[in-house]
Amino acid sequence: MIKNIVLIGFMGCGKSSVGRRLAAETGFRFLDSDECVVEHAGMPISEVFALHGEAYFRDLEAEALRGLGEAVGIVLATGGGAILREDNRTFLKEFGTICWLDANPDILFERASRSGRRPLLQTPNPRESFDALLSDRRDIYEQASDFRIDSSLLSHDGAAAAILEALRERESTNLTEMSIDSP
Question: Is residue 167 predicted with pLDDT exceeding 80?
Fold first, then answer.
């Protein structure tokens, strides 16, 4: 039985939009860790970055994750960098099943660029910054996740359906393994 579903992935992969659809499909409650940080900080993430820097934001993000405690029935969309800290990865592994929502880098960049609210892209060369960050994080996403869904050619509904199918497959595999291993 899945206790929580955790979505990780780079900016522009659709964690929040897909997460809302997953919550609607499963009856789970949807939470976005970035929204939790905004609520706690009392200011937008871009302002947190501008006034206090990325390290302070990452501290708030870690606090927001810990604040979830042992909640059950949550679809959690994490910020793209939430997995950078090992203690966050450990917590998320215990918290639920982790899906890495991924897409082609060109698609991710186009999606992420639609909003001017991405503090890590506020650089002289946003694409260069984007590519460097993605390159640094790809292996971490892979190691932290239980499975990966490529959303490049999927609608939000399609990505949610693919995640649910992958979760069903994992559950049936786990049940089969349990019955095989049982005396």
Answer: yes
Does residue 121 belong to any structural domain of this protein? yes
Identify whether the C-beta of residue 103 lies closer than 8 Å to the C-beta of residue 151.
Answer: yes
CA angle, 101 then 105 then 110, to 5° = 95
Number of domains in the chain: 1
pLDDT at 176: 54
Structure confidence at residue 2 (pLDDT): 87
Low-confidence winner among 75-79, 93-97, 124-128 (lowest mean pLDDT): 124-128
Q: What is the CATH number of the domain that holds 104?
A: 3.40.50.300
Collect all residues with Cβ–Cβ distance below 8 Å to 156 and sequence separation of at least 6. Answer: 14, 17, 18, 21
Structural domain span for residue 108: 4-173
Q: How far apart are CA 167 and CA 173, in angstroms?
A: 10
Contact 31, 92 (CB under 8 A): no
